[in-house]
Structures are given as C-alpha cells and as structure tokens.
Amino acid sequence: MLKEKNNIELIINLLIENYNTVYTRFQNVTIDKMIVGFKGRWLNKQFNPSKPYKYHIKSFGHVDSCTGYVLNLLTYYGKNTSSDPNSDTDRGQGVQIFRTLLGVIGRGYHVFADGLYTTRKLVDYLLSEEQ
User: pTM, whole model, 2 decimals?
Assistant: First the structure.
C-alpha cells in the first residue's frame, strides 16, 4: 500500500511541477473535492450512491477558477493522506487541505471554496496567513 501511494504521488508531483512551470495562474483560484470514477481494485476507493460514479477515487484540487487548470492535486488515502507536515492537525481536515494545496502561492489571490470547507478554524487560518 505504501509503495503504491509513493509511486502515485511521485507521478502526480512530477506532473504538477511541470504544469506549473508553463502556466501562470490567474487571481481567482478554488479548492474543491474532485472524484474520478473507478471500478478497479483500490484500497482507498470511496462509495457514494448519490454520485454518477458510485465507486470513485477522491482527491482535492487547487484549480484556476478562470480556466479550470489544475494547479495542485492531493489524492485521498484516508489517514495516510499526505498533507503539509507543518499543518496543525487540531485545526481539522479543511486547514490541512488548504495549507497543503495552496503551499507557496503567495498573497493577492482570491480563494474560493464550497460550503464543505467554511469552518471557523479554516477562516481563522486564512485570515492569519493574510497578515
């Protein structure tokens, strides 16, 4: 399981690194959950009967709102999800996801998210990063 995770993350990280060298993001970005329909064998496959693809791989994406270009991607592996090691686990999953995906984009961006992430801890974190 760990070897599979490391191999997948290596490929994703190389792709994202290459994508970001040729693309300049616009001012509006979004963080959102993304699902990929999948019927094969995968230990961390999710099931949601209300989705078009009942079985899927869940990931979180940092996407340019204007173009839909994926700037960063975090695949969900349950408790083994690779989040930023400096993030405070007491603040919750939303803060870990935002900190990991936004990384070092800097200031001056408008970050959008759906209601899933609008927690007080996340708002406090984003306001503290604005300073």
Answer: 0.78
